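Morning F.,

Quick status update on the modeling queue. The single chain you submitted on Monday has been processed. Sequence for confirmation:
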Amino acid sequence: MSKKRRDNLIWGVILIAIGLLFLLDNMGYDAWEFIFKFWPLILIIWGADKLYYGLKDRQAAKQEVAEKQHRDKEDEG
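Structure tokens below.
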């Protein structure tokens, strides 16, 4: 998944979540209390996302370098 597509997906989920919070608040549910109680969970999920995709991008970069070295070696031989 490309970075731009992943960013769009994340922002879409964030906007839906905010919309749901406002909707629940308008319906009489105290959704903000829940958010204030569990806001560190947002940081944990965000950090896990950054870690996962950072490691995935790093692995892909290493694989590209290895493939390039392999092609260069074949071209020499």
